[in-house]
Design a protein that fits this description.
The complex is a heterodimer of chains A (246) and B (238). With 246 residues, chain A is an alpha/beta fold. Chain A is 45% helix and 15% strand. Chain A has one domain: Rossmann fold, CATH 3.40.50.720. In chain A, helix 2 packs across helix 9 and helix 4 runs parallel beside helix 6. Chain B contains eight helices and seven strands, in the order βαβαβαβαβαβαααβ. In chain B, strand 5, helix 5 and strand 6 form a beta-alpha-beta unit. Classes of the chains: A alpha/beta (246), B alpha/beta (238). At the A-B interface, helix 6, helix 9 and strand 7 of A face helix 5, helix 8 and strand 7 of B. Chain A: One of its GO terms (biological process) is fatty acid elongation. Chain A: GO terms for molecular function: oxidoreductase activity, acting on the CH-OH group of donors, NAD or NADP as acceptor. Chain A: This is SDR family oxidoreductase.
């Protein structure tokens, strides 16, 4: 499949929060298929360096950080063809029963999981429209299933789905597709930090009977980013081993 | 193995599977389209409502191809009619082809798919199975039923390493679609009205649906099961 390995030759891909886990797997996948890949994350030390990589270490929420990142990408790699709004985080370490949840934590989760997608998409919109690009937003099974103590995270991740649908309609006349991915249990650092009994419970509820790998999500992202998926827009694809079956 | 692979979306997936290096079997109704398939395709005439014919075809195709790792069901018929015009026969026919046929097909090929150990089924549902279409009560019901059949089967067959998913196209440039709009008073206006329902403002080519089916069949989608993926240019926003 020589063709498949050069699907993104000459394309510029931006991945927010791509320093590890799912984002890093997507970055590696798009790079392997020929894309110039730019990543913004607080820690990018786990990523390879070299040709067609642009690693930008920083906090997306810092004043001016997305703008500086975007300007550097355009300067070095040219206009953006593929935007992966992967950045997102729950306030899990500060998670609380809803009646005791703090607005400060809500704001943080919204900023990093929802507003980040809005900001990066707005920065890239003109280029994407001029080039018939792709936007892929990282939602979550948590948006559908809900988890106690994570009302903020579920709201942000479901918000991304509404954002995806509305933006898909707006961008469609320009040949831009906008879709969302909703991973279930995937083997990442956040997943590994969960108590073993919760992981066992998740596996028991997952028909395929195992936890997915970041590469499973990357394969879906590569498909949606490719010309193979040019007639798919506004959709949310669950990669969850059959957990939800929406 | 592609049921309904002689024309339309089914034919597009047959051609894509061949190009990707697969050995391909086809079941479809006897006719010129089935006879015109490339010589390296194992093509058998069988009606998807015919239990005995499917069982025979299942065995013959599994033997001829040396096993079956992927099953696509794209056999389907349409019915556009207000409730009062739906005859019992017409209702039973569409359910028999679009819904019961999918069950019979999966049942006929289950042993081969289990033997594979890493297999996938893709059923062709429809956007009409996600959101209703007027005067398509029978069609919408059959396609929505097909989705829930697929999801339940996904749970059942997961332990055998078999994934089951649906693809839900909107309007696709196929003989079935053409037949549904021809004969109207103003075909061009009808076409324009259909296009206007899609964010991308156009009707799909069969190959664009086939691309998604091929992806779901492939190992690239190894953690995807029980989904109904809309490939509809932005209509249903599922």
């Amino acid at each position: 499949m020589a063709d498949a390995l050069s699907r993104f030759d000459g394309k510029t891909a931006v991945i927010t929060g791509g320093g590890g886990g799912i984002g890093a797997a997507i970055a590696a996948r798009l790079h392997r298929e020929g894309a110039r890949v730019a990543v913004l994350d607080r820690d990018v030390s786990a990523l390879p360096t070299g040709a067609r990589w642009y690693l930008h270490e920083g906090d997306f929420l810092a004043e001016g950080a997305p703008e500086a990142f975007h300007a550097a990408v355009v300067r070095d790699f040219g206009p953006v063809d593929i935007l992966i709004n992967n950045l997102g985080q729950s306030g899990r370490e500060r998670a609380a029963p809803f009646h005791r949840s703090q607005e400060e934590v809500w704001r943080f989760v919204m900023e990093i999981s929802l507003f980040s997608a809005m900001r990066m998409s707005r920065l890239c919109a003109a280029d994407l429209q001029a080039r018939g690009g792709r936007i892929i937003n990282m939602s979550s099974l948590a948006a559908f299933a809900g988890n106690p103590g994570l009302t903020d995270y579920a709201a942000a991740k479901m918000g991304l789905i509404g954002f995806t649908r509305s933006l898909a309609r707006e961008m469609a006349p320009h040949g831009v597709t906008v879709n969302a991915l909703a991973p279930g249990a995937i083997r990442t650092a956040a997943h590994a930090a969960m108590p073993p009994e919760i992981i066992a419970d998740i596996i028991a509820k997952t028909p395929v009977g195992f936890v997915g790998e970041p590469e499973d999500v990357a394969a879906a992202a590569a498909f949606l980013a490719s010309s193979e998926a040019r007639y798919i827009t506004g959709q949310t694809l669950l990669i969850d081993g059959g957990n939800w079956m929406l | 193995m592609v049921a309904g692979g002689a024309q339309g979306i089914g034919l597009a997936i047959v051609l894509r599977l061949r190009a990707a290096g697969a050995k391909v079997g086809v079941i479809d109704l006897a006719g010129p389209a089935l006879s015109a398939l490339p010589g390296d395709v194992t093509a058998l005439a069988a009606d998807i409502t015919d239990t005995a014919a499917l069982a025979a075809a299942g065995a013959e195709i599994a033997a001829s191809l040396g096993g079956v790792d992927g099953l696509v069901n794209s056999a389907g018929i349409d019915l556009v009619a207000p409730l009062s015009d739906i005859t019992d026969d017409a209702w039973e026919r569409i359910i028999a082809v679009n819904l019961t046929g999918a069950m019979k097909l999966a049942r006929a090929f289950e042993p081969s798919l289990r033997a594979s150990g890493c297999a996938a089924i893709v059923n062709l549902s429809s956007g009409a199975g996600l959101v209703p279409l007027k005067h398509r009560s029978a069609y919408s019901a059959s396609k929505a039923g097909l989705q829930m059949f697929s999801k339940s089967l996904a749970m059942e067959l997961a332990e055998a390493g078999i994934r089951v998913n649906c693809v839900c196209p909107g309007a696709v440039e196929t003989p079935l679609f053409r037949a549904s709009i021809s004969g109207g008073e103003d075909e061009a206006a009808q076409l324009q009205a259909v296009r206007a329902r899609y964010a991308l403002q156009r009707i799909a080519a069969p190959d664009e649906i086939a691309a998604a089916i091929l992806w779901l069949l492939s190992d690239e989608a190894s953690y995807v099961t029980g989904v109904a993926l809309a490939v509809d240019g932005g209509r249903t926003f599922h």
